Amino acid sequence: MRLLAAAWLLCFVVLAQAEVVALPVRGVVVDNHGEALAAATVSVVDMRMMRQCDEQGHFAFDLPAGHYRLQVQLVGYGSAEQEVQAGDTAVVVRLRSLGMLNAITVTATRTPRTLANTPIVTKVISSEEIAASDASTVREVLEQELPGVEFSYSMNQQVAINVQGTGGMSVLFLVDGERLAGETLDNIDYGRLNVSDVERIEVIKGAATVLYGSNAVGAVVNIITKRQNDPWSLSLNGRHASRYGQYGYGATAGVKQGRWSNLLNMNTDGASSYYVVDTDGDSTQVYGNQQWNFKDKMSLRLSDRISLTGRVGYYFHERDDAVDDKPRARDFSGGLRLASAIGDSTSLEASYSFDRYDKSDFYPLVDKEYLDYKNVQNSCRLLMHHSFSPKLELSLGVDAMDDYLLSYQFSADASDHRQQTADLFAQAEWEPSAHWNIIGGIRVDYFSLYGVECSPKVAAMYKSGHYRLRATYAKGFRAPTLKELYMDFNMANIFNIYGNADLESEVSHCFTLSAEYGDEYATASATAYYNRLGNEITTVWNPAMSDGRGAMEYRNVEGTDLASVDLALRLRTDGGFAFKAGYTLFHEFPRGDALPTSDTRPHSVTAQASYEQQWSQVRMTATLGARYLSAATYYVITTSTDGAYDSYEPFTSSGYGLVKLVASAKFWDCLTVTATVDNLLNYRPQHYAYNSPYTLGRTYIVGLSLDLPKH
């Protein structure tokens, strides 16, 4: 009987256990404004269960029937607890920001991290900051927010960037982590970067080659685009300026139903041609332009652990150079990204990216268009992230790209060239104690045309209370482009420019040291950069080429050392006042007897003061921004037409300052009216140089945007 009773008892226990059914608990973690918070940790109190939110702030558990208490934490935010019941699938947890270091960055480590917990110095420009500055282009955003960044004109008024001594070929621009095809005079087409589709911009100064490869020597600028988070949305906007014929119109429409969401963004803007006249009476025409941008992003959550994101884009640009010839540019882009969580400690991401950038000449008188440039890039990536513990994480990645270029700057016999690249990188993030964060990584790149490059990096951060110290060493490189390898171009019958198939990569050794204080109301930091450049790629006059007539040829030269210091201060109060300022000091150290050739200004300052107040159904905001760049003297190598001698001629760029006042009113949380006075102090340069602002004086801008209610 005892044996029979024991058997019945065992069967009862087994049946009871079999009846336990796991029910889902699904939710999202957001901030005070309803924005999703990636990387927040969600724990089930009294159970050994923890999840980390994905990039959209989502978390998921499967729990037996019953009531539970969730604890949610994220560095830079106050923790929160919330009661839930098994079966709840629409849980929303809100965290309150504790300061200015809570912004999320993915660029520095390729995994979501708050600024307060990232050993690599990173600047994050939020969508709120972009809106407050009333910037119409990404170019304006970077200039207003980052001292040491300057955009200027190159030959034929092509836009070029300068970041603390490095130019466009050493500054890597990414959109959602993907490279951009096409370039003109060593710069991408900045008109492709549509500010109305930007969620935030992340900037890393210095080498970030371990994660992003070639060109990430002077800086990495990663533009994170918006994602649909509401059931539906519709936004319309327009702006007009009193000068230059400037205009801009945009529309964004989004929908989210269950596991599926889509966001469509359309934008057009342009300006008329105009003339500037300096004090000597010399006039210069500034070319007008018009452009269109279309982007669509679709996301599908195939399951609680697998998501698929697809994107397509089209861009068109036309410049009013002349009546009979209008240069055009087009871009077609697309991509797929599959993200999967494997267990609780491993995530896997696979992606494919396509980008085709074309340039052509349109002749209106005969209605003909001729393609003379085409760059096509096909890229694949596989990225794995594994957490051995909350204190030790590993990221592994492999990339492959096919790069095709057809160009009018190649010879008629070989008008196109192609190169394949592949790489493997690894990065470990270790938190040995509550005070230390350490990152180490290495990358190996293969180029089919010339060989292999290896790049290491190490970064460390010590944190105690409100204080943080960061130090980084990174080796960077810039591989020679197809243009630099194979160029064969006649420069207006003045001289020829030839590529060099024997070029080697530029090399960079970048050291960064930073000290920072941050609390709920103030953040102050000082960062020093030292970048030692070697084997630089540039054009050099070769008198023996072109049958003794001489020509310009791409070559590797010794290099130079670049040093800079960034100071930053941010303040805010509960009363709606905020202030931020930045200062950059730059100096070049030429090696040997060489003269400095960088035209970077030694001093640059940005500052912004704002006030925000809410009255009933109206939110008022006023922002006063200023930007100052000092004069710069530099040397340019000039060569006699016969190539007999070189000379070093000093040039001086005048310093200047610009002030901008922006006032906006948002009614009923949907209608926003913006009034801006650009160049408030009515500055006009005496002489219009390539890097002076081509302004005619004070400009008035009016903007209107309508965001329809989402409920």
Q: Which architecture of the largest domain would the CATH scheme give at its second level?
A: Beta Barrel
**Uncertain regions spanning at least 5 consecutive residues:** 6-19
- The total domain count is 2
End-to-end separation? 67 Å
CATH superfamily of the largest domain: TonB-dependent receptor, beta-barrel domain
List the helices and strands and how they pair.
Elements (H helix, E strand, L loop, with lengths): L1 H17 L3 E9 L10 E4 L4 E4 L5 E7 L2 E7 L6 E6 L5 E4 L9 E2 L7 E2 L8 E4 H7 L4 H8 L3 E5 L5 E5 L7 E5 L2 E2 L18 E8 L3 H4 L6 E7 L6 E10 L5 E11 L2 E12 L2 E4 L5 E4 L2 E13 L4 E14 L6 E17 L3 E18 L4 E22 L2 E16 L8 E18 L2 E12 L3 E14 L2 E12 L3 H5 L1 E4 L3 E4 L7 E13 L3 E13 L1 E7 L8 E7 L2 E13 L4 E14 L12 E13 L2 E12 L2 E8 L6 E8 L2 E12 L3 E8 L20 E9 L4
Parallel strand pairs: 1-7, 13-16, 33-37
Antiparallel strand pairs: 1-4, 2-3, 2-5, 5-6, 8-9, 10-15, 11-12, 13-14, 15-16, 17-18, 17-46, 18-19, 19-22, 20-21, 22-23, 23-24, 24-25, 25-26, 26-27, 27-28, 28-29, 29-30, 30-31, 31-34, 32-33, 34-35, 35-38, 36-37, 38-39, 39-40, 40-41, 41-44, 42-43, 44-45, 45-46
Walk me through the structure:
The protein has 711 residues and is mostly beta strands. The protein folds into two domains: 20-94, Sandwich (Immunoglobulin-like), CATH 2.60.40; 104-451 and 460-707, TonB-dependent receptor, beta-barrel domain (Maltoporin, Chain A), CATH 2.40.170.20. The strands form nine sheets. The protein has a 22-stranded antiparallel beta barrel. Strands 10-15-16-13-14 form a five-stranded mixed beta sheet. Strands 3-2-5-6 form a four-stranded antiparallel beta sheet, with no helix packed on it. A hairpin with a 6-residue loop joins strand 23 (306-319) and strand 24. The longest helix is centred in the first third of the chain and has 17 residues, at 2-18.
